[in-house]
């Protein structure tokens, strides 16, 4: 007997093409996860809620928050969406599928863990390169406009940086051609992770308190507070590359 997930998945593949699901579907899921996980931190900062867990005492102005949101919408539509559409042939060539049966959870978990490790390694070196003098001044300084980050600033960056570091995110899936379910789960977890790293709050339940190699908000907030040539903490998820 088919599970609820399989029934829902059957509806998707019967009503939409692989291309629609992989491009438009991925974009819709990305936007939903990103804004649903990131917007609460704007509200918390405005209301002063959970202030005792806020890493920095400073808060962003309403104008600065609104500027971030408006530019994100522009960049997501003009950069992220075309990237998702353009990368579809590569994924398809490497064996990507959306068809049933769904992959086993063992396969899904192994692939996603592998993607996190690969992404972190590539991101570390790419991020470190962006902190060289010329690239920081002309590209990466856009992301560092927010010395006091909040969740949505995680994807606030120069379009060139979105493409450059976006390569780290899609590299693992691009070379393995995963099932669409795996791709969507990976994308969702990566978005939640980067939003949490930029949220500006170090909660008692933060994963970094229980998993020593996980960076988290305090680790990355330190990176935003210091001068660009002295900051360190270049990794996206883990801490061992910076060690």
UniProtKB/TrEMBL annotation:
Keywords carried by this UniProt record: Membrane, Transmembrane, Transmembrane helix
Keyword Transmembrane helix included in the entry's annotation: yes
Chain ranges of the Fatty acid hydroxylase domain: 113-243
Gene Ontology MF term list: iron ion binding; oxidoreductase activity
One of the record's GO cellular component terms: membrane
Residue stretches spanning the membrane: 20-44, 72-91, 103-125, 162-187
Keyword Transmembrane helix: yes
Highest taxon listed in the record's lineage: Eukaryota
Subcellular location: Membrane
Main localization of the protein described in the UniProt heading: membrane
Annotated GO biological process: lipid biosynthetic process
InterPro entries: Fatty_acid_hydroxylase, Sterol_Desaturase_Related
UniProt family annotation: Belongs to the sterol desaturase family.
This protein's name: Fatty acid hydroxylase domain-containing protein
Species: Ceratodon purpureus (Fire moss)
Source organism phylogeny: Eukaryota, Viridiplantae, Streptophyta, Embryophyta, Bryophyta
